[in-house]
Amino acid sequence: MRTASIVVLTVLTFTILLVFNISYSPAQNAMLFLSPEFAKLVCDAWNQSELPQKLGTKEAGGNNWILTENKYTGEVRNKQVLVMSRRDCSAMPKVQLTIENKNGKAVCTYGGALTESYEKAEWAFAPKTVQWYKFASGIWGYMQMPGIMKGFRGPMFVARANIDNFGTFWKIVGKVAKQTKCRL
């Protein structure tokens, strides 16, 4: 049974490398998956997607996600901070996206190294590398939510109400990973 598990994990890892065209060796100028530089590109891609409109204020045609109360502090900060990491790569520093209310739209204003206190962040995602791959490949929905629960922070009911928007977010991450040919 253990050998079969190792074989399955090995096959999944190589599938990630092939599908995303990710390098496992430190190639010159290759971007590291979920590095601060990678987070900056995800931030830029967020702003080119439908998410700023969909997650903006109701007055601007969105669903008010940008005004979600922080579950941990009780504040409504007119922004949402998303902390991202890989649960199976604990030595890697966490990165963040800061999404702010700009004229009613949920605009990403920062992507990079963690600058916000983790305890004040509205959201945190820490799937394993294989889970990042699956989610970014479009395998996402209610049935996948348990896969991120160990490293998840945020209001669960808001997350469930935004399941499709989270799916768009995962696809953005996957698109950036593929375009940059990043390494693990």
Question: Which key terms come to mind for this protein?
Answer:
single chain; 184 residues; alpha+beta; Nonspecific Lipid-transfer Protein, Chain A; four-stranded mixed β-sheet; 36% helix; 14% strand; globular
Description:
The chain has 184 residues and is an alpha+beta fold. It has one domain: SCP2 sterol-binding domain (Nonspecific Lipid-transfer Protein, Chain A, 2-Layer Sandwich), CATH 3.30.1050. A four-stranded mixed β-sheet has the order 3-2-1-4. α2 packs across α6 and α4 packs across α6. It is globular. The two termini are 27 Å apart. About 4% of the residues have low confidence.
Tell me briefly what this model is.
With 184 residues, this protein is of the alpha+beta class. Helix content is 36%, strand content 14%.
Please give the alpha-carbon distance between the first and last residues: 27 Å
The CATH topology, please? Answer: Nonspecific Lipid-transfer Protein, Chain A
Shape: globular
Taking strands numbered 1, 2, ... along the chain, how are they ordered across the largest sheet?
A: 3-2-1-4
- Give the overall average pLDDT: 84
Gross CATH architecture:
2-Layer Sandwich
Ranges where pLDDT stays below 50 over 5 or more residues in a row are 5-12
Tally of distinct domains:
1
CATH superfamily: SCP2 sterol-binding domain
Task: Itemize the secondary structure elements and their pairings.
Blueprint: H1 2-19, H2 36-47, H3 51-54, E1 79-84, E2 95-102, E3 105-113, E4 123-125, H4 129-136, H5 156-161, H6 163-180
Parallel strand pairs: 1-4
Antiparallel strand pairs: 1-2, 2-3
Helix pairs in contact: 2-6, 4-6
